[in-house]
Design a protein that fits this description.
Chain A has about 110 residues and is an all-beta fold. Chain A has no helices and eleven strands. In chain B, the strands form two sheets. In chain B, strands 2, 4, 5, 9, 10 and 11 form a six-stranded mixed β-sheet that branches. The chains are: A mainly beta (about 110), B mainly beta (about 110).
């Protein structure tokens, strides 16, 4: 079974603070993704990456940065957190075109 | 604008009954479709994929695809309480197949 690990599982942040969400995969997959999930919106794509050193903007990138320093690691950075970024964040990895995505357990972020 | 639309938003089906879920894309560039299932408090897991016109069956689950209308449907026969979950439809674009777009989901409840 493909393994994707996210940390932390829960995070409470203050408005204006910096938040970093981390994701590690041991599948040797090229593609990695960050989604957020809110009631009524399904999963919305924030940033994704095709390999180390690459990041691409998804459908809702504003207020978020991403970093892919290695094949295994993909981070999501909120430089100035806002309450509207309160959500559940999922990281996923995939081998490539037409391949299944494997999701981490999610990070519940609350911005006060 | 949501490129992948699912209906209904929620569905209640008696145990042993048939559940039918729908998904349509508004983007003519959509190429491949997936169905993911997410139990409450868990991460999404791939249930079935369909890439060409027609029907695909795996156990109690059947998926249909009509590429001309960009419509896919998931049918679950002999529904069980363990089928209660959020069902997410996902699609990839032919010019950017690494990017997976999800619909808002259908919440399925199986009533014993």
């Amino acid at each position: 079974e493909a393994a994707v690990t996210q940390s932390p599982r829960n995070k409470v942040a203050v408005t204006g603070g910096k938040v970093t969400l981390s994701c590690n995969q041991t599948n040797n997959h090229n593609n990695m993704y960050w989604y957020r999930q809110d009631t009524g919106h399904g999963l919305r794509l924030i940033h994704y990456s095709y390999g180390a050193g690459s990041t691409e903007k998804g459908d809702i990138p504003d207020g978020y940065k991403a970093s892919r320093p290695s094949q295994e690691n993909f981070s999501l950075i909120l430089e100035l957190a806002t309450p509207s970024q309160t959500s559940v964040y999922f990281c996923a990895s995939g081998a490539g075109v037409a391949e299944t995505l494997y999701f981490g357990s999610g990070t519940r972020l609350t911005v006060l | 604008q949501q490129k992948v639309q699912q209906s209904p938003e929620s569905l209640i089906v008696p145990e042993g009954g048939m559940a039918s879920l729908n998904c349509t894309s508004s983007d003519r560039n959509v190429d491949y479709f997936w169905w993911y299932r997410q139990h409450s408090g868990k991460s999404p897991k791939m249930l079935m994929s369909i890439f060409s016109n027609g029907e695909k069956e795996e156990g109690r689950f059947t998926v249909h695809l009509n590429k001309a209308s960009l419509h896919t449907s998931l049918h679950i026969r002999d529904s069980q309480p363990s089928d209660s979950a959020l069902y997410l439809c996902a699609a990839s674009l032919n010019y950017n197949q690494g990017k997976l777009i999800f619909g808002q989901g259908t919440k399925l409840s199986i009533k014993p």
